[in-house]
Amino acid sequence: MEAVNTKVIVKWGGREFEIQYGPTDTIHDLRNYIYKQTKVKPERQKLLNLKFKGKTPEDSCTVSTLKLKCGFKIMMMGSLEEEIEKVNSEPLDMPEVVNDLDIEDEEVAIENQEIYLAKVEKRVKEYEIKMLNDFRTNKKLLVLDIDYTLFDHRSSAETGNELMRPYLHEFLTSAYEDYDIVIWSATGMKWIEEKMKLLGVSTHNAYKIAFYLDSLAMISVHIPKYGVLDVKPLGVIWGKFPQYSSKNTIMFDDVRRNFIMNPRNGLKIRAFRQAHLNRSTDTELLKLSKYLKDLAQNCEDFSSVSHRHWEKYKPKRRR
Q1: Which among 134, 149, 108, 178 is positioned nearest to 272, based on CA atoms?
Q2: How far apart are the first and last CA of the chain?
Q3: A Gene Ontology CC term for this entry (predicted)?
Q4: Of 26, 220, 226, 259, whose CA is between 20 and 30 Å from 184?
Q5: Three-state DSSP class for 124?
Q6: 3-state helix, strand, coil in the chain (%, to 5)
Q7: H helices within 139-261, ranges in order?
Q8: Domain 6-85 - what CATH class?
């Protein structure tokens, strides 16, 4: 009887690639098949959720021994050679980078413009939210970005733990005591789900995520100085869940312009990059755990606090 090939789906660069392999093919062979379709060299491929007995399989391992279901989705990270060359060489015509500090002058004008409020209202009506866990009574709301906030999606690594920001689970466990938690990423929903699974967030017993929001919940705004930018308006959440508002909501993102529609409710977290170098020294989430606790226990209106200076915040104790 002729051997039957099976397939996996490789998710990379926002796209999915169907990869066929045979019963005797090894991980090395699989990498070469992936290379043919993606042009990412085998040595640059990081197959994050491919495991054998809890460890990353050796290239000599036969794929069939992993007992993958047909259509199993593999999360891959890796750069094309031309992209690496661009990073390593200084471009002659380097474009102007949008500076978050420069953008602040536009904030008040942007958040109150009717055209953008109408876009928010449209998202409230048309965007469907899939609840993962129910909201709880008298909780605040924490909205979290993923890339460079909780997860370094570009560093070299072979496991999710190596890319995860230090103290992530401790941070979420502490926050969950006072806040319902929402994840909002400027990527697609499937990618969000895979990342949360990879990091162990979606299955953790100490906390629960209320729901995910993806790029389709964002709106575009036009700033004369920089052109069109996609942003994350908290009004989409507030319009659907009126128990939450500017008074009890805070958003963490490593890019300030993402909360340009709600500047008084956004906190720009330090970006977590080069995970392989910074895992041992990054304590941002530990410090922010205390800040969230202080806000929840002592602040009646989150929008009245300057979150930019969160490290200097001294709560006024309630009597």
Answers
A1: 149
A2: 80
A3: nucleus
A4: 226
A5: helix
A6: 35, 20, 45
A7: 160-163, 168-176, 189-198, 235-240
A8: alpha beta
Distances (CA, A) of 115 to 222, 228, 258: 10, 14, 17
Give the number of residues written for the chain: 319
Helix (H) or strand (E) holding 4: none
pLDDT in tens, 60-82: 999 999 999 999 999 888 777 66
213 in helix, strand or coil?
A: strand
DSSP single-letter state for residue 147:
B
Cα(240)–Cα(233) distance, integer angstroms? 12
Distance of CA 1 to the CA centre of its chain: 47
As given in the structure block, the two tokens for residue 116 are 């953008």
Give me the residues paired with residue 75 across strands. Answer: 11
> Domain 106-312 belongs to what architecture?
3-Layer(aba) Sandwich (3.40)
Q: Which helix (H) or strand (E) holds 26?
A: none
Beta-ladder partners of 211: 182
Inform me whether the pLDDT recorded for 96 exceeds 50.
no
The residue type of 287 is K
E-assigned strand segments in 259-306: 266-268
Residue extents of the structural domains in the chain: 6-85, 106-312
AA letter at 125: K
CA atoms within 13 A on the CB side of 68: 27
The position carrying tokens 């805070």 is 250
The amino acid that residue 165 corresponds to is R
Alpha-carbon torsion 20, 161, 251, 136, what sign? Answer: positive
Which helix (DSSP H) or strand (DSSP E) does residue 105 occupy? Answer: none
Say what the pTM is. 0.71
Residues 6 or more apart whose CB falls under 8 angstroms from that of 94 comprise none
Q: What are 223's strand-pairing partners?
A: 227
